[in-house]
Amino acid sequence: MTAWAVRCVSASGSSNGDMMQAQAVVQILELDNIRKVFGGVVAVDNLSVRVDKGSVTSVIGPNGAGKTTLFNMITGFLAPTAGRIACSGKVLNRLRPHDIAAFGVARTFQNVRLFPQMSVLENVMVGRHLRSRAGMLVSAFLPPVLRTEERRVREDARQWLEFVGLAAHSKATAGSLPLGSQRMLEVARALALEPHLLLLDEPAAGLNSRETIAMGELIEKIRQQQITVVLVEHDMELVMDISDRVLVINFGRLIGDGTPEAVQEDADVIAAYLGE
Amino acid sequence: MQGRDITGLLALVLCIAVAPVLITNDYYLGVLIFTAFNCLACIGLCLLMGYAGQISLGHGAFVAIGAYAAGIFTVKMGWSPWNAMLAGAAIVAVVSAIVGIPTLRLKGHYLAMGTLGFASIVHILAVATVEVTGGPSGLLNIPRISIFGIVLDSDVRFFYFSWAVVVIGLYLAFNLVNSRMGRGLRALHGSEEAAASLGVNITGYKIQVFVLSAVYASIAGSLYAYYVNYIDPGPFDVMHSVLLVTMVAVGGMHKLWGAFTGAVLLTLLPELLSFATQYLEAMGIAYKPDYDILVYGGILLIIMLFLPEGVFDGLGSAVRFGKRFIQR
Known about the structure:
The complex is a heterodimer of chains A (276) and B (328). Chain A has 276 residues and is α/β, with parallel strands linked by helices.
């Protein structure tokens, strides 16, 4: 992961690179007064949050609280109505999803979005897209030139499959895997990007308890790789187990923020969950 | 390229090598040359439809531009056939980018609509701009193309040349499909959101593939002009674009071999139908050529219902089924 850090530094600007880096060490994700309005419905209402680098942060809240909308804004799938989103000091507003991915923000989806017709290994190889560079003309006319690159892409993808424990299924069609493995594969694919920030949208949804435990262990392993994790999750046991910090959102507003223990005691949070 | 595709390509080369020896009738050789043009256009279209998941109803227009560029630059400006063909490809690349950039940025089948309109415009221009295209009476005396100093003036020579171009076109397409870009295309076909979240520039890739597939069509058009030495707007109406899409869909759009099979089958179908006509007439049943379109529609319907992955895939399943049956 040190090689990746070096790349990250060289990628950031030259003149004020030091300043940005100093900021990045502390806070990787900054949301300032984020607001999203769909027609007359306010999905996210003046949300301001800062996420520490290397932490695991859970975002919880009732259905429709605006959690997935928040993820979609961070990753460029939705444009915020107002506010500023920045990752490592770089403003992400108005950037398209693939540009944001290039900046080291990876995500998974609430309803698993694999490439179902492709093999498990190929799915992760797509994750290496930004770490390889072959273009159309070279690919068509001079494939031998790219043999080394292709081999490396395949090798790296295999390592990420091993990381999540799916190496044995590399040749299977992604769509044929059970849901638990599909979620693991989606995480492996996102990790293959070598992100600094990984957004997991309900990673344990639909998983049985054994699979949920495995997902929790995987998230712990990801944290050990110095990758910042932000997840939306409904499984409270998992959330309380793995999070450094829990954010509670209701009706697009932040109603609770703190350690898992503190949030569990918070009167507002209990009211939002159990009804007043 | 994967081993199986290389085997297929070698088998194709073998078939091409022996075909003129077995088929001595110039008419049938001519039909096979037309098959080569359609194969070339369909290989390009397959990259767009099967891999990027976009439909173009205007590929006939790109064939037309390729053909007219070949005709106009050689007849009216005296260029060499090779330069005229390259100029045609360049023009098509620019034009397709102009059509593709606004339509491919949108979600949904806007490309199909845009290209459909574009195809009508090109057809109307071909008819109306008499000074440039010769209008309905067409362009005459398009020169023959020559390669390594050999003028391709016989059907056998042109047969080898056009099929060599198809083999090269297939080879390049296979390389592309099995590359990083091919992976990106299949990924965006599976889920655009997921592909974008991994850094695949989905709009950029769609535009690139659209331009590439248009260039394939353009080359097919130029070769057509050099083979028949005469072009008029007749063959380049919107129905030709629809026919190309049908070929790709019938053969199986998710595999290059599928599009290839579809192009071969549907180009040879009218010939098979004319055989059938003679047979039916001998039995006392009147068959009019107008019925051809009915048969086309029926075939398309049956394939979409029972073989949604196309004839090529259907053949594969049949072979697998047969193997299992024999082993039992």
